Amino acid sequence: MGHVAIPRLVLAVGLAALPAVARTEDKTTLAILLGGRKAGAETVVREMPDSGTYRDTVRVELTTPGGLPLTIDSTLVLRETLETLVPTRYTFEAKVAGRETSVRLDFEGGRVRGAITEAGQERAVDLDAGKDFVLLENNVFHPYRAMYRRYNFDKGGVQTVPALVPSAGVVLEARMERKGTARVKREGKAEMLERVEVRLGDLVFDLYGTRGGRFLFLECASLALRAAMPGYEEAELPLR
Q1: Would you list the DSSP string of 98-132?
Q2: What pLDDT band is residue 76 in, cutting at 50, 70 and 90?
Q3: What residue spans define the domains of the chain?
Q4: What's the distance, CA 144 to chain centroid?
Q5: Where does residue 40 fall: left (phi above 0), alpha (psi -120 to 50 degrees), or beta otherwise?
Q6: Sign of the alpha-carbon dihedral angle for 17, 56, 142, 53
Q7: 53 against 234, higher pLDDT
Q8: Taken in order 206, 210, 215, 216, is the CA torsion positive or negative?
Q9: What's the predicted TM-score (pTM) here?
């Protein structure tokens, strides 16, 4: 599929023009660790604007390894079906050192249309992602959980799934493989979790959870980025 440079920070989502009144389903603040130190936080808010529609809004504020402040605001809109939550709209805006990047995408029937704007230059996006893709590059509660649940532990080995990477405007093949178990401490208690390695372009990260399909957090080796499920500010897994 060729070499595609994937942004190192695997986070985010965004949107506007939705009803102002919405029921808040969940609000979680997650710590972001870089080099073993807390570098910022990610706040995830899930709302239900109307029956069958969910809106995940994410605010990320952190200091990059180079000492620059990075802010990301985004939202993912999802429609509930009998089997899963289907993404319908995504927007993303990142600001660092005076530079801005924004993404606006709409999804319908496996088709992805919208635009990506970088340094004031806009380019159109029109992709066929298929109906079974995973949307990456947003908060951990939708894409990584969905990806983790796709992995068949009984089958094992390398398994693939199409992954849409919005900021790059491409659909790549994500290769997932079980890499054994890891002893993880959470809330002072140790437990054995499954580790599934994901390779996407030049990006490699690990998903951790239970064999029953319960996703708990991810670890991105390039940034040592980790996020735990609600109730845990930080995952206690030792950094690489």
Answers
A1: TEEEEEEEEEETTEEEEEEEETTEEEEEEEE--TT
A2: confident
A3: 23-227
A4: 6
A5: left
A6: negative
A7: 53
A8: negative
A9: 0.64
Comparing 27-36, 54-63, 117-126, 228-237, which segment has the lowest mean pLDDT? 228-237
Residues 6+ apart with CB under 8 A from 189: none
Containing 148, the helix (H) or strand (E) segment is helix 143-150
d(CA 92, CA 36): 27
133 and 171 in contact (C-beta within 8 Å)?
Answer: yes
| In the block, residue with structure tokens 């992995």 | 151
Distance CA 224, CA 208 (A): 14
Q: Is 94 helix (H, G, I), strand (E, B) or coil?
A: strand
Using CA atoms in the order 14, 28, 237, 209, what is the torsion angle rounded to 10 degrees?
-80
CA dihedral (28, 32, 184, 144) positive or negative: positive
- CA 109 and chain centroid, separation: 21
Distance of alpha carbon 84 from alpha carbon 54, whole angstroms: 12
